[in-house]
Protein backbone atom coordinates (compact mmCIF):
# COMPACT_ATOMS: atom_id res chain seq x y z
CA UNK A 1 0.00 0.00 0.00
CA UNK A 2 1.48 3.35 -1.07
CA UNK A 3 -0.34 5.67 1.32
CA UNK A 4 1.59 6.59 4.46
CA UNK A 5 -0.59 9.38 5.89
CA UNK A 6 -4.33 9.55 6.55
CA UNK A 7 -7.01 11.69 8.15
CA UNK A 8 -8.27 10.85 11.64
CA UNK A 9 -10.69 12.55 14.03
CA UNK A 10 -8.57 12.66 17.18
CA UNK A 11 -9.52 13.60 20.74
CA UNK A 12 -6.22 14.91 22.10
CA UNK A 13 -7.12 17.61 24.65
CA UNK A 14 -9.91 18.44 27.13
CA UNK A 15 -13.10 20.13 26.00
CA UNK A 16 -15.09 19.96 22.75
CA UNK A 17 -12.33 21.86 20.93
CA UNK A 18 -9.93 19.05 21.80
CA UNK A 19 -11.46 16.98 18.99
CA UNK A 20 -9.86 17.78 15.64
CA UNK A 21 -9.36 16.26 12.21
CA UNK A 22 -5.64 15.55 11.96
CA UNK A 23 -3.12 14.03 9.58
CA UNK A 24 -1.60 10.90 11.13
CA UNK A 25 0.39 7.91 9.94
CA UNK A 26 -1.46 4.97 8.40
CA UNK A 27 -1.23 2.21 11.03
CA UNK A 28 0.54 -1.07 10.36
CA UNK A 29 -1.34 -4.29 11.20
CA UNK A 30 0.34 -6.46 13.84
CA UNK A 31 0.39 -10.23 13.44
CA UNK A 32 -3.23 -10.84 14.48
CA UNK A 33 -4.70 -7.63 13.05
CA UNK A 34 -6.42 -6.50 9.87
CA UNK A 35 -5.84 -3.14 8.20
CA UNK A 36 -9.27 -1.94 7.11
CA UNK A 37 -10.10 0.92 4.75
CA UNK A 38 -13.10 2.49 6.49
CA UNK A 39 -16.21 2.76 4.31
CA UNK A 40 -18.50 4.36 6.91
CA UNK A 41 -18.53 5.10 10.64
CA UNK A 42 -21.63 6.05 12.63
CA UNK A 43 -21.67 8.56 15.48
CA UNK A 44 -22.75 6.96 18.75
CA UNK A 45 -23.77 8.78 21.92
CA UNK A 46 -20.48 7.56 23.37
CA UNK A 47 -18.57 9.63 20.79
CA UNK A 48 -20.56 12.72 21.77
CA UNK A 49 -19.80 12.08 25.44
CA UNK A 50 -16.08 11.58 24.75
CA UNK A 51 -15.98 14.91 22.95
CA UNK A 52 -17.42 16.52 26.11
CA UNK A 53 -15.10 14.53 28.43
CA UNK A 54 -18.11 12.71 29.89
CA UNK A 55 -16.92 9.18 29.07
CA UNK A 56 -13.67 7.42 29.97
CA UNK A 57 -11.11 7.60 27.17
CA UNK A 58 -7.34 7.56 26.75
CA UNK A 59 -6.17 10.52 24.66
CA UNK A 60 -4.85 11.02 22.13
CA UNK A 61 -7.36 8.63 20.57
CA UNK A 62 -9.26 8.46 17.28
CA UNK A 63 -13.01 8.19 17.88
CA UNK A 64 -15.48 5.77 16.30
CA UNK A 65 -16.54 2.19 17.01
CA UNK A 66 -19.58 1.67 14.74
CA UNK A 67 -18.10 1.01 11.31
CA UNK A 68 -17.50 -1.27 8.36
CA UNK A 69 -14.85 -1.32 5.67
CA UNK A 70 -12.62 -3.22 3.26
CA UNK A 71 -9.72 -5.39 4.36
CA UNK A 72 -6.60 -4.09 2.58
CA UNK A 73 -3.88 -5.91 4.51
CA UNK A 74 -3.87 -9.05 6.65
CA UNK A 75 -1.44 -9.65 9.51
CA UNK A 76 0.66 -12.81 9.40
CA UNK A 77 -1.30 -14.49 12.21
CA UNK A 78 -4.74 -13.08 11.34
CA UNK A 79 -6.88 -16.06 10.38
CA UNK A 80 -10.14 -16.29 8.47
CA UNK A 81 -9.99 -13.12 6.36
CA UNK A 82 -8.57 -12.05 3.01
CA UNK A 83 -7.89 -8.79 1.22
CA UNK A 84 -11.18 -7.58 -0.28
CA UNK A 85 -13.42 -8.89 2.48
CA UNK A 86 -15.81 -6.35 3.95
CA UNK A 87 -15.89 -6.47 7.73
CA UNK A 88 -17.36 -4.90 10.82
CA UNK A 89 -16.27 -5.52 14.40
CA UNK A 90 -17.04 -5.84 18.06
CA UNK A 91 -15.76 -3.01 20.26
CA UNK A 92 -13.75 -5.05 22.79
CA UNK A 93 -10.33 -4.49 21.22
CA UNK A 94 -8.29 -5.62 24.22
CA UNK A 95 -9.25 -8.10 26.96
CA UNK A 96 -7.37 -10.38 29.35
CA UNK A 97 -8.38 -13.53 27.45
CA UNK A 98 -8.32 -15.59 30.66
CA UNK A 99 -11.36 -14.65 32.75
CA UNK A 100 -14.67 -16.57 32.60
CA UNK A 101 -16.21 -13.78 30.51
CA UNK A 102 -13.48 -13.93 27.88
CA UNK A 103 -13.53 -17.72 27.72
CA UNK A 104 -17.30 -17.79 27.19
CA UNK A 105 -17.40 -15.15 24.43
CA UNK A 106 -18.75 -12.27 26.56
CA UNK A 107 -15.76 -9.96 26.09
CA UNK A 108 -17.65 -6.85 27.23
CA UNK A 109 -17.70 -8.27 30.77
CA UNK A 110 -13.91 -8.49 31.06
CA UNK A 111 -12.66 -6.19 33.81
CA UNK A 112 -9.56 -5.38 31.77
CA UNK A 113 -11.44 -4.55 28.57
CA UNK A 114 -10.51 -1.54 26.51
CA UNK A 115 -12.58 -0.63 23.49
CA UNK A 116 -11.96 0.73 20.03
CA UNK A 117 -12.67 4.45 19.78
CA UNK A 118 -11.96 5.17 23.45
CA UNK A 119 -9.07 2.97 24.56
CA UNK A 120 -7.65 2.29 21.08
CA UNK A 121 -7.76 4.30 17.87
CA UNK A 122 -11.16 4.04 16.21
CA UNK A 123 -12.77 4.25 12.80
CA UNK A 124 -13.41 7.96 12.25
CA UNK A 125 -10.42 7.82 9.94
CA UNK A 126 -9.39 6.59 6.52
CA UNK A 127 -7.97 3.37 7.99
CA UNK A 128 -8.18 1.34 11.18
CA UNK A 129 -6.28 -1.67 12.50
CA UNK A 130 -8.45 -4.15 14.37
CA UNK A 131 -7.91 -7.67 15.75
CA UNK A 132 -9.20 -10.29 13.33
CA UNK A 133 -10.63 -12.21 16.29
CA UNK A 134 -13.35 -9.58 16.85
CA UNK A 135 -14.21 -8.99 13.18
CA UNK A 136 -17.22 -10.30 11.27
CA UNK A 137 -17.57 -10.55 7.52
CA UNK A 138 -20.38 -8.52 5.95
CA UNK A 139 -22.83 -10.87 4.16
CA UNK A 140 -22.63 -10.58 0.37
CA UNK A 141 -26.22 -9.33 0.13
CA UNK A 142 -25.30 -6.26 2.21
CA UNK A 143 -21.90 -5.29 0.78
CA UNK A 144 -21.14 -1.63 0.00
CA UNK A 145 -24.07 -0.33 2.06
CA UNK A 146 -23.42 2.59 4.44
CA UNK A 147 -26.07 1.29 6.84
CA UNK A 148 -23.80 -1.62 7.75
CA UNK A 149 -21.98 0.88 9.97
CA UNK A 150 -24.82 0.38 12.48
CA UNK A 151 -24.15 -3.34 12.94
CA UNK A 152 -22.60 -2.65 16.35
CA UNK A 153 -25.72 -1.14 18.00
CA UNK A 154 -27.80 -3.85 16.37
CA UNK A 155 -25.52 -6.45 17.95
CA UNK A 156 -26.32 -4.87 21.33
CA UNK A 157 -30.03 -5.41 20.67
CA UNK A 158 -29.30 -9.00 19.64
CA UNK A 159 -27.41 -9.51 22.91
CA UNK A 160 -30.41 -8.22 24.88
CA UNK A 161 -32.94 -10.40 23.08
CA UNK A 162 -31.04 -13.63 22.45
CA UNK A 163 -28.47 -13.76 25.26
CA UNK A 164 -30.03 -11.96 28.21
CA UNK A 165 -33.77 -12.63 27.80
CA UNK A 166 -35.70 -15.79 27.05
CA UNK A 167 -38.26 -15.09 24.34
CA UNK A 168 -40.42 -17.89 22.99
CA UNK A 169 -42.54 -18.01 19.88
CA UNK A 170 -45.89 -16.34 20.52
CA UNK A 171 -44.71 -14.26 23.50
CA UNK A 172 -46.12 -10.75 23.71
CA UNK A 173 -43.08 -8.47 23.80
CA UNK A 174 -43.27 -4.72 24.39
CA UNK A 175 -40.36 -2.56 23.23
CA UNK A 176 -40.25 0.78 25.04
CA UNK A 177 -38.52 3.54 23.11
CA UNK A 178 -38.46 3.60 19.27
CA UNK A 179 -34.94 5.01 18.89
CA UNK A 180 -32.20 3.16 17.04
CA UNK A 181 -31.74 0.57 19.79
CA UNK A 182 -35.49 0.11 20.22
CA UNK A 183 -35.97 -0.32 16.48
CA UNK A 184 -33.25 -2.97 16.44
CA UNK A 185 -34.63 -4.72 19.54
CA UNK A 186 -38.09 -4.88 17.97
CA UNK A 187 -36.66 -6.59 14.90
CA UNK A 188 -34.72 -9.07 17.04
CA UNK A 189 -37.81 -9.90 19.10
CA UNK A 190 -39.77 -10.42 15.89
CA UNK A 191 -37.04 -12.73 14.61
CA UNK A 192 -37.42 -14.69 17.86
CA UNK A 193 -41.08 -15.30 16.99
CA UNK A 194 -42.73 -12.80 19.33
CA UNK A 195 -45.81 -10.63 18.90
CA UNK A 196 -44.13 -7.22 19.11
CA UNK A 197 -45.64 -3.98 20.40
CA UNK A 198 -43.47 -0.85 20.18
CA UNK A 199 -44.35 2.04 22.48
CA UNK A 200 -43.38 5.68 22.68
CA UNK A 201 -44.86 9.13 23.23
CA UNK A 202 -46.88 11.29 20.80
CA UNK A 203 -43.79 12.92 19.26
CA UNK A 204 -42.53 9.43 18.32
CA UNK A 205 -45.29 8.68 15.81
CA UNK A 206 -42.98 8.75 12.79
CA UNK A 207 -40.58 6.39 14.53
CA UNK A 208 -43.43 4.09 15.49
CA UNK A 209 -44.51 4.02 11.86
CA UNK A 210 -41.00 2.86 10.93
CA UNK A 211 -41.19 0.10 13.55
CA UNK A 212 -44.41 -1.12 11.94
CA UNK A 213 -42.79 -0.97 8.51
CA UNK A 214 -39.95 -3.14 9.83
CA UNK A 215 -42.27 -5.83 11.15
CA UNK A 216 -43.73 -4.77 14.51
CA UNK A 217 -47.28 -6.04 15.05
CA UNK A 218 -48.65 -3.01 16.90
CA UNK A 219 -47.53 0.35 18.24
CA UNK A 220 -48.71 2.84 20.83
CA UNK A 221 -47.89 6.56 21.08
CA UNK A 222 -50.01 7.08 24.21
CA UNK A 223 -48.44 5.80 27.45
CA UNK A 224 -51.85 5.91 29.13
CA UNK A 225 -53.29 3.49 26.55
CA UNK A 226 -50.38 1.05 26.52
CA UNK A 227 -51.62 -1.27 29.27
CA UNK A 228 -55.02 -1.68 27.59
CA UNK A 229 -53.31 -2.55 24.30
CA UNK A 230 -51.10 -5.13 26.00
CA UNK A 231 -54.01 -6.76 27.82
CA UNK A 232 -55.86 -7.03 24.53
CA UNK A 233 -53.16 -9.42 23.31
CA UNK A 234 -52.38 -11.13 26.62
CA UNK A 235 -54.87 -10.78 29.50
CA UNK A 236 -52.07 -11.44 32.02
CA UNK A 237 -49.72 -8.76 30.71
CA UNK A 238 -46.60 -8.67 28.56
CA UNK A 239 -44.40 -11.74 28.69
CA UNK A 240 -41.30 -9.61 28.12
CA UNK A 241 -40.73 -5.85 28.17
CA UNK A 242 -37.57 -4.49 26.53
CA UNK A 243 -36.83 -1.05 27.99
CA UNK A 244 -34.65 0.79 25.48
CA UNK A 245 -35.35 4.44 26.30
CA UNK A 246 -33.50 5.04 29.56
CA UNK A 247 -36.53 6.96 30.86
CA UNK A 248 -37.62 6.32 34.46
CA UNK A 249 -41.36 6.54 33.66
CA UNK A 250 -40.84 3.84 31.02
CA UNK A 251 -39.24 1.47 33.53
CA UNK A 252 -42.08 2.05 35.98
CA UNK A 253 -44.58 1.38 33.20
CA UNK A 254 -42.66 -1.76 32.24
CA UNK A 255 -43.12 -3.15 35.76
CA UNK A 256 -46.83 -2.32 35.63
CA UNK A 257 -47.57 -3.95 32.26
CA UNK A 258 -45.34 -7.02 32.69
CA UNK A 259 -47.16 -10.18 33.73
CA UNK A 260 -46.35 -12.02 36.93
CA UNK A 261 -43.31 -14.19 36.32
CA UNK A 262 -42.43 -12.21 33.20
CA UNK A 263 -39.19 -10.52 32.23
CA UNK A 264 -37.90 -6.99 31.78
CA UNK A 265 -34.81 -6.48 29.64
CA UNK A 266 -33.07 -3.21 30.47
CA UNK A 267 -30.92 -1.80 27.67
CA UNK A 268 -31.46 1.95 28.06
CA UNK A 269 -29.07 3.80 30.37
CA UNK A 270 -30.45 6.39 32.78
CA UNK A 271 -27.24 8.33 33.38
CA UNK A 272 -27.97 8.85 37.08
CA UNK A 273 -29.22 7.00 40.17
CA UNK A 274 -32.96 6.36 39.94
CA UNK A 275 -35.87 5.32 42.12
CA UNK A 276 -38.28 2.61 40.98
CA UNK A 277 -40.78 0.27 42.69
CA UNK A 278 -38.54 -2.68 43.54
CA UNK A 279 -41.20 -4.15 45.84
CA UNK A 280 -43.61 -4.41 42.92
CA UNK A 281 -40.92 -6.14 40.88
CA UNK A 282 -40.39 -8.64 43.70
CA UNK A 283 -44.08 -9.22 44.43
CA UNK A 284 -44.74 -10.02 40.77
CA UNK A 285 -41.57 -12.17 40.54
CA UNK A 286 -40.48 -10.29 37.44
CA UNK A 287 -36.99 -11.16 36.30
CA UNK A 288 -34.90 -8.08 35.52
CA UNK A 289 -32.33 -8.80 32.81
CA UNK A 290 -29.78 -6.07 32.19
CA UNK A 291 -27.73 -5.84 29.02
CA UNK A 292 -24.46 -4.10 28.18
CA UNK A 293 -22.76 -4.32 24.83
CA UNK A 294 -22.63 -7.50 22.81
CA UNK A 295 -21.09 -10.97 22.63
CA UNK A 296 -19.63 -13.24 19.98
CA UNK A 297 -22.90 -15.15 20.15
CA UNK A 298 -25.00 -12.06 19.42
CA UNK A 299 -22.74 -11.04 16.53
CA UNK A 300 -23.02 -14.48 14.96
CA UNK A 301 -26.79 -14.36 15.28
CA UNK A 302 -26.93 -10.86 13.79
CA UNK A 303 -24.84 -11.76 10.75
CA UNK A 304 -27.06 -14.79 10.14
CA UNK A 305 -30.18 -12.61 10.30
CA UNK A 306 -28.66 -10.13 7.84
CA UNK A 307 -27.75 -12.97 5.47
CA UNK A 308 -31.38 -14.11 5.63
CA UNK A 309 -32.67 -10.53 5.14
CA UNK A 310 -34.58 -11.04 8.40
CA UNK A 311 -33.49 -7.66 9.82
CA UNK A 312 -33.13 -4.24 8.22
CA UNK A 313 -30.81 -1.34 8.99
CA UNK A 314 -31.17 0.93 5.97
CA UNK A 315 -33.58 3.38 7.60
CA UNK A 316 -31.57 3.60 10.82
CA UNK A 317 -29.19 5.98 9.03
CA UNK A 318 -30.65 9.48 9.01
CA UNK A 319 -27.83 11.39 7.29
CA UNK A 320 -24.42 10.80 5.71
CA UNK A 321 -21.57 13.34 5.86
CA UNK A 322 -18.04 13.28 4.45
CA UNK A 323 -15.43 13.04 7.21
CA UNK A 324 -14.28 16.63 6.68
CA UNK A 325 -17.77 17.84 7.67
CA UNK A 326 -17.60 16.05 11.01
CA UNK A 327 -18.60 19.15 13.00
CA UNK A 328 -21.95 19.38 11.17
CA UNK A 329 -22.46 15.66 11.68
CA UNK A 330 -21.76 15.88 15.41
CA UNK A 331 -24.12 18.85 15.74
CA UNK A 332 -26.89 16.79 14.16
CA UNK A 333 -26.09 13.81 16.38
CA UNK A 334 -26.11 16.00 19.50
CA UNK A 335 -29.50 17.46 18.53
CA UNK A 336 -31.09 14.03 18.97
CA UNK A 337 -32.90 14.25 15.64
CA UNK A 338 -33.06 11.09 13.58
CA UNK A 339 -31.24 7.84 14.27
CA UNK A 340 -27.58 7.33 13.39
CA UNK A 341 -25.50 9.96 11.61
CA UNK A 342 -22.78 8.43 9.45
CA UNK A 343 -19.35 9.77 8.47
CA UNK A 344 -17.79 8.59 5.20
CA UNK A 345 -13.99 9.05 4.86
Automatic annotation (TrEMBL):
Organism's domain of life?
Answer: Bacteria
**Which protein is depicted?**
L-iditol 2-dehydrogenase
Transmembrane segments annotated in the record for this chain: none
Pfam entry (one): ADH_zinc_N
Keywords tagged on the record: Metal-binding, Oxidoreductase, Zinc
Q: Pinpoint the Enoyl reductase (ER) domain residues.
A: 15-343
Naturally occurring in which organism (per UniProt):
Enterocloster lavalensis
GO molecular-function terms, A-Z: oxidoreductase activity; zinc ion binding
**Family of the protein in this entry:** Belongs to the zinc-containing alcohol dehydrogenase family.
Cofactor list: Zn(2+)
Amino acid sequence: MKETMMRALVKSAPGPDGLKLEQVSVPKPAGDQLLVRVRACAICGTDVHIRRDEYLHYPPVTLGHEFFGDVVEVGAQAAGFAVGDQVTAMTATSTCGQCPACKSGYLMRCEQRRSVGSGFNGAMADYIVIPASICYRIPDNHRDQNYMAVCEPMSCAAHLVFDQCEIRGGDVVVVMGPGALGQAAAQMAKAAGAFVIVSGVPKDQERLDLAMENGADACCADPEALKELVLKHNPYGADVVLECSGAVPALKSAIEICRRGGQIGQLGLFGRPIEFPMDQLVMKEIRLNVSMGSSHQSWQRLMTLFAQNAVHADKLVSAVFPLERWEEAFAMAESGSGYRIVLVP
